[in-house]
Amino acid sequence: MSLKKATFIIILVLLIDQISKIYIKTNFVLGEHVEVFSWFKILFIENEGAAWGTKISDIIPGVSDEAGKLFLTVFRLIAICGIGYWLVDSVKKNSTPTLILAVSLIFAGALGNIIDSVFYGLIFDDSYGHVATLFSDEPYGTLFHGKVVDMLHFPMIDTVLPDWFPIWGGKNFRFFEPVFNVADAAISIGVGVLLIFNKKAFPNEGK
C-alpha cells in the first residue's frame, strides 16, 4: 500500500471523527442522549483522561488534574510521532497492506483524539446545561487542556442479574458499557487487525 492510500485513509477517518464530534458538541447538552435502537444510543460525554476516563491523578496521588491532563496530552503527542514514523517506515520497506492499514487506522485515531485534547479547550465553551458554541469568546480551557468528545454507546445487554448469580446477583449488568468515538473505534480496529491477522501483517517474522 502506498503512502497516498494510507494518507487517504487517515484523512477519511479524521473527517468522520471531527465532523461527528463537532456536530455532537454543537447540538447536544452534556449528558443528553438519543436512542437510535434499543442497543445503540448517541450519548454525549466528555473524557478528560485516558482510556475509560482514567486520569493521571487517579493513578498518581498528589498530581493535579491540570498537570495530569498536560502530561497526558504531551505523552499522546510523543506517541503519535512514533506511530507516524512507524507508518512511513513501513511504507518505505514495502510492508504488507495489512500492516500499513492497521498502522494508518491507529495513527488516525490517535491524531483525532489529540486534536480534541490540544484545541477543543480553545475553540469551544463548556456544554454544562447548554449547547456549546464553536469559536466561543469564552472557551472552557486552554491549549493542551481540551476534553475528548465521546458519543457512541452500545448497551447491547442492559438487565438485572438474577439473585442466584454469584457475587453480582440482583445487580444491574450492562454490556457494552464504555462510551467512545470514531477515533477510538479506529484505534481498536487497527489493533484488532494486528492481533487477528498477525501473520499477514508480519509475514517475515512468522517465517
UniProtKB/TrEMBL annotation:
It is a multi-pass membrane protein. It is found in: Cell membrane. Coiled coil: none annotated. Signal peptide: none annotated. The active site is at residues 150, 184. It catalyses: Release of signal peptides from bacterial membrane prolipoproteins. Hydrolyzes -Xaa-Yaa-Zaa-|-(S,diacylglyceryl)Cys-, in which Xaa is hydrophobic (preferably Leu), and Yaa (Ala or Ser) and Zaa (Gly or Ala) have small, neutral side chains. This protein specifically catalyzes the removal of signal peptides from prolipoproteins. This is Lipoprotein signal peptidase. The gene is lspA.
